[in-house]
Amino acid sequence: MRGFAWVFAVVLAVAQPIAAADEIWMARLDGSVNPASVDYLIQTIEDADSAGAAAVLIELDTPGGLVASTMDIVGTVLNADVPVIVYVTPRGAMASSAGVFITMSAHVAAMSPSTTIGAAHPVSAMGSNPKPPAMPAAPGGEPAEGEAEGETPSGPTSTPPADYSLEKAENVLAKYNETIAKERGRNVAWAEDAVRNSVVIDAEEALELGVIDLIASSRTELLEAIEGRVVEVKGEPVTLTLAGAEVIPVEMTWGQQFFAFLSDPNVASVLFLAGLLGLYIEFNNPGLLVPGVAGAVCLLLTGIAMQILPFSWVGLLVMILGIGLVTAEIFIPTFGALFAAGIGCLLLGGSMVFDQPELSDLNVSFWQVLVPAVSAVALFGGAIVFLVGRSLWVAQTAGVDELIGLVGRATTALDPAGKVFVRGEYWNVIADGSVALGESVEVTDVEGLELRVRRVETTSTL
Fold first, then answer.
1. What gap in Å lies between CA 72 and CA 80, rounded to an integer?
2. Rounded to the nearest 5°, which phi and psi values hold at 410?
C-alpha cells in the first residue's frame, strides 16, 4: 500500500507541472485597450500561472486605449508570477500609445520587422497648444550647449503652456513610463520622449535604442531566439526554456468580445445617433414598433458603452441639441437655418463626446465614422423636411374645407335655404339667390354643418 501511495504521489507531482511547463499561453490584443481586453489579458495571465505554464505570449497590435485599463494591464504584467512576452506583430502592426506601456512592461519585448512603437502623448481631439521643438541633445544624452538641465527653450520660439489637464496627464504618464523602463532595464530617456514628444520609431530603431529586446520575423523565430534567456520575475531569475513548447491560443469569451465591441467610441456614437433616429421615427408614426424598439435597444447599448468609456456631458448635450434643431426645422420652417445648425451641433458634439485625453486616447473617427453617420441623419431629416414642406403647398383633399369650390346639384329649390348633393353627400345649404331644383351650385363657404352656395352655369355635378 505504501508503495502504491508513493507511486501515486510521484505521478501527481510529475504529471501536472511537466505537462504545463511545455506550454505557452498566447493572447491576442488586436484593437483598443479597454476593460474587456483588461479582463481578457489578466485572466489569461492568472490562469497560465495557475496551470504552471512556461510563459504567456501577448501578440500586440493596438492604436491605444483607456489610461486606467492600460495601468491595470501593466500592473498585472509587472507583478506576474509567470514570464510575459509581448510581441508586436504582424508586419505593419503598431504599439501606439497604450501599447508603448504594455510592451515596455514585458519581461521580453519583441517586434516584427516593419512595425512601429511610440506616440504615447495624450492629445485632445479639439486641439491643444503645440509642443515646443525639443533641443538637440549632446552626445551621451547631455543637454545641448546653452541649455541647462530641466530648462525649456524660451524667447520668440517658445509656446504658451498647454491646457492644464493635458499637462497634468503628460507629466503623470511620462513618469509612469520612466518607472516601467527602469524596472525592465530599458531606455528611460526614450520612454519619457515617447510621452512628451509623441516620438514614433520602427523595430530596428527600437532595438538599437534599447526599447525592445529583439526583432523576430515569426513566432517560432521569437521562441528560438529567447531560448535560455534569463529574465527577472518578481525579483527572482528565471531561465526561459521555450523552444519547441506548445503554443495554446486563448480566445476572448463572447461576453468579452461583446464589451470590447461596445468599447469603441465609433460604435457608441453610431448607436447613439441610430437610437435617436429610431425613436424620432416612432414618435412621428406611433404603432410602427420596430423603429421604436430598435431605437430603444441602440440607446440601451449606448448607455452600456458610456459606462465603459469616459465621455463628456458637454459633447453629449451638444449632440442632443443638434437632434432637437433638426427636428425643430420640420415644425418651424427657417429655410434650412435650424437644420444646418443642428447638423453642425451633431458634428461638433460627436467630436467632443469622447474627447477625454487625460483618461483615454480613443476618440471618434471624424471623417470615417462621424461625417458619414451625421450625413445619413441629415439625408433622412432633409427628406422629412422636404416632404412636410411640400405637403403644405398641396391642396387639401380631406375635411370640410375641401368642399369649397366643388360643384354640386340642388335636390330642392333653394330660396335661399334647401338641400344639395355634393361629393356623394346631402348638405343643408343657404344660397346666394334663388336656385331651381336640379340646377348646379358651387360651394363658397362652410359654416359648421351648413354650406354657402351660389348658382353656376354648368351641368357638371358631383
1. 12
2. -75, 120
Instruction: Fold for 2-128+164-255, please state it.
Output: 2-enoyl-CoA Hydratase; Chain A, domain 1 (3.90.226)
Query: Where in the chain do CATH 2.40.50.140 domains reside?
Result: 400-455
Q: Where are the alpha helices (DSSP H) in 65-156?
A: 67-78, 98-105
Contact at 8 Å (CB) between 58 and 41?
Answer: yes
pTM above 0.90, yes or no: no
Helix (H, G, I), strand (E, B) or coil at 161: coil
- CATH 3.90.226.10 domain range(s) in the chain: 2-128+164-255
CA dist., res. 211 & res. 197, Å (int): 16
Name, in order, each residue with C-beta under 8 angstroms of 24's C-beta and a sequence gap of 6 or more: 53, 54, 55, 56, 57, 223, 242, 245, 246, 247, 248
CA distance 442 to 409: 9
Q: What is the pLDDT along the chain (462 residues), one digit of tens a residue?
A: 444 334 334 333 433 333 345 899 999 999 889 889 999 999 999 999 999 999 999 999 998 888 888 999 999 999 999 999 999 999 999 999 999 999 999 999 999 999 999 988 775 544 444 443 343 343 334 444 434 444 443 333 334 344 566 788 888 899 999 999 999 999 999 999 999 998 999 999 999 999 999 999 999 999 999 999 999 998 899 999 887 789 999 999 998 889 888 888 888 888 888 887 788 777 767 777 888 888 889 889 988 887 777 777 888 888 888 878 877 776 776 777 887 888 888 888 887 777 665 555 666 667 777 777 777 777 776 676 566 556 555 555 556 667 888 899 999 989 889 999 998 889 999 998 888 888 999 998 888 889 999 988 765 444
Q: Tally the residues of the chain.
A: 462
CB 377 within 8 A of CB 351: no
Q: Which three cell numbers stand for residue 180?
A: 516601467
> HSE of 43 in the Cβ direction (CA atoms, 13 Å)?
12
Return the CATH architecture of domain 400-455.
Beta Barrel (2.40)
Residue 261: C-alpha distances to residues 36, 256, 258, 355, 368 (Å):
9, 9, 5, 19, 17
**What is the Cα 201 distance to its own chain's centre?**
27
In angstroms, rounded to a whole number, what is the distance separating the alpha carbons of residues 281 and 278?
A: 5
> What residue spans of 64-118 are helical by DSSP H?
67-78, 98-105
Q: Is 135 left (phi over 0), alpha (psi -120 to 50) or beta?
A: beta
Nearest by Cα to 232 from 213, 209, 218: 213
- Cell readout for 168 is 497634468
* CA–CA gap between residue 444 and residue 406 (Å, rounded): 8
